[in-house]
Design brief:
single chain, alpha/beta, Rossmann fold, 11 helices
């Protein structure tokens, strides 16, 4: 997806293991780090950036091995991906930020908040979870089998699991593009496999009671990939967290219901005036 505004700054950040991360920064104001999910691209946030960048310095990155970023040699764990994000903030000269994470990005955001809480001013967790569940274990076992045996079907199923049905029907080119870009190459499949392995091992539920920063949890009731009962559990686990569930939007509700997604974020931020200081 294209960069939405001409004033976006694109640069790379080199990590100690040799990975080079592609970063996009746009807007001015309080820093807002946006972390995408399994796909790991900065472009996931493009529909949201024009609005977010009016009040925040928004920072997005392609995660290691994804799109414009190289893989490096470090193990691809949620802890490592969180450290990668801290390095990006360091490169931007940012001590602390509002952190917004979607799906796997929400796991990364939780890890950042638990390991270096002073660097996370507030936390927005979108379509994410606290611990492994049978539902996710079995779903991602199925997705791994599809990836290995038929990468085109893997790409096809991901589209149907991710996008709200009426939106997808009206934007069918998304499906066609996904099939054209199916992960046929073994090297690409390996990156996806290691990312899925990292996400199904993620479990920070017992530690979440330690969090003290303001936290908003977002989900969609029709999300088939990461169902809303997982966000409900997450909200119970984090003291003072506010839960807001959209009725529709599917797993990719920041894309399919962008206006609703942004409304929930901006209304929540407006009630936490300290976030603008």
């Amino acid at each position: 997806m294209p960069i939405p505004e001409s004033n976006a700054k694109q640069f790379s950040v080199t990590l100690t293991d040799g990975a080079r991360l592609a970063v996009t920064a746009q807007g001015t104001g309080k820093a807002l780090l946006c972390i995408s999910g399994l796909g790991g691209t900065a472009g996931f946030w493009n529909p949201c950036i024009p609005a977010l960048a009016t009040t925040h310095q928004t920072i997005c990155l392609d995660q290691r091995g994804i799109a414009g970023s190289t893989r490096g040699t470090a193990a691809c764990t949620i802890d490592q991906l969180a450290e990668d994000c801290f390095t990006v903030l360091d490169a931007c000269g940012i001590d602390s930020a509002v952190v917004l994470g979607h799906s796997t990005g929400g796991c990364i955001a939780q890890t950042m908040s638990l390991t270096k809480p002073a660097r996370v001013q507030s936390l927005i967790l979108s379509a994410t979870w606290a611990r492994p569940t049978r539902y996710m274990q079995e779903l991602f076992k199925l997705r791994l089998a599809l990836l290995e045996n038929n990468p085109v079907q893997y790409a096809s199923s991901a589209v149907f699991l991710s996008y709200e049905s009426s939106w997808l029907n009206a934007n069918w080119s998304v499906y066609e593009s996904a099939l054209a870009g199916a992960p046929r190459a073994p090297a690409v499949q390996q990156i996806i496999q290691e990312r899925i392995s990292a996400l199904i091992k993620f479990d920070r539920k017992a530690e979440l009671a330690q969090l003290t920063m303001p936290c908003l949890i977002l989900g969609a009731r029709d999300d088939l990939m990461i169902p809303s009962f997982l966000q409900e559990e997450l909200a119970i686990s984090i003291p003072g967290a506010e839960l807001r569930l959209l009725n529709y939007g599917g797993h990719f509700f920041p894309i399919t219901y962008t206006e609703n997604f942004l409304q929930e974020i901006t209304s929540w931020l407006s009630t936490h005036t300290n976030l603008y200081i």
